[in-house]
Amino acid sequence: MESWQLTAELILDEKAALSEGPVWDHRSGRLLWVDIEGMRIHHYDPVQGTDRSIQLDQRVGAAVPRAEGDGLVLALEHGFHLFDIATERLTKLADPEAGLPENRFNDGKCDEAGRFWAGTMNCENSDPTGALYCLEPDGSLRKAIDGVSCSNGLGWSLDGRTMYYIDSPTRQVVAYDYEPAAGAISNRRTVVTIPEGEGIPDGMAVDGEGMLWVAQWGGWRVSCWNPQTGERLGFVRVPAAQVTSCAFGGPDWDELYITTARTGLSEEQLVQQPHAGGLFRVKTGVKGRPACFYDG
Ligand SMILES: O=C(O)[C@H](O)[C@@H](O)[C@H](O)[C@H](O)CO
Ligand SMILES: [Zn+2]
C-alpha cells in the first residue's frame, strides 16, 4: 500500500540541539521554529536563506505567533508566556506545573478558535506525570488531558470536529471528537500506530486533504497516514534519525518543513548524520493549510 517515498533536503545546517515546533507565518513568509534545549526562538527566511534567533533563559517547548501584532505566545519550561519580539519582554500568563520540577513544556499548537494547546513531559523518566493544557484567548487555562508521558504532536481534521494527539511513548496517534465552540474533547480512540522498530511519533501536521504527517523520533522519516483507515500512504526520508516535527509552508503551502535533533546522539552517530539538528524541506505535491495563531 505504500505508494510513494520522497527525500527531504537540508536547507539550514544549524546543528541545533533540539530543533522543534515549525510554524509557517504567511504574513512574513518566514518559518518560526524553536531549539528547545538551546533555549532559542528562530525565524528562517527561505527567500534570503537566512536564520535569526533570540536567546531565552529557559527551555522553550513551543512558540506560536499571536494573531494581532508580531508577538508570540510561548510554552516555556516555566509555563505560558507572551513574548514581545522587539523588546524581548516576557509576560507570564500561567505556570500550571510549578510544583512538578521534573516536568517541562513540550509541543504546542493553536486551533481554529485561536486557543493555544500545549503539553508537558517528564524530563527524568517516562512516568505519566505530564498533561495537555488549553490556553483560551482570554488567558484562562484548563487541563484537558491527564496522565501524559511525553506530550507531542497536535492537529485538527478539516471540518474541525476531530482533534489528533500524540503521547510519544504510546507509539500511537489518537483522535478525540472535538467540539469547536467550547474546545471540548471526548471519545478517545487510536487512529495510527507506528510500527515497532521505527522510533516513536513526535510532532505532526495535517494536510489539506486531512491526512496526517507524523515525524518519527528515531525513525529517520516523516510518514503520511490516513486517519480514517490507519494506513500509511508514503513517507519522507530524512537524513537524521531524530525527526522531531513538521509543518506545511511556502508561498503555495506545498512545502513540508521538517525539524531534527542532535541531542542524545553519540559521536559515532553524529558522524553518520552530520546534519542532525538541521532544518529540512520537501515539496510534497499536496497543500497544507494556514497555521492558526493565538487570539489572545
Ligand atoms: O522532540 C520532542 O518532542 C521532545 O522534546 C524530545 O525530548 C523527544 O520527543 C523525547 O525525548 C523522545 O523520547
Ligand atoms: Zn516534539
UniProtKB/TrEMBL annotation:
One of its GO terms (cellular component) is cytoplasm. One of its GO terms (biological process) is L-ascorbic acid biosynthetic process. It is found in: Cytoplasm. A divalent metal cation binds at residues 20, 152, 202. The active site is at 202 (proton donor/acceptor). GO terms for molecular function: calcium ion binding; enzyme regulator activity; gluconolactonase activity. The keyword Calcium applies. Its cofactor is Mg(2+); Ca(2+); Zn(2+); Mn(2+). Binds 1 divalent metal cation per subunit. Substrate binds at residues 104, 106, 124. Belongs to the SMP-30/CGR1 family. It catalyses: D-glucono-1,5-lactone + H2O = D-gluconate + H(+). It holds the Pfam family SGL. It comes from the Bacteria. This is Regucalcin. Its EC number is 3.1.1.17. Keywords: Calcium, Cytoplasm, Hydrolase, Metal-binding, Zinc. Residues 18-262 form the SMP-30/Gluconolactonase/LRE-like region domain. Gene3D superfamilies: TolB, C-terminal domain.
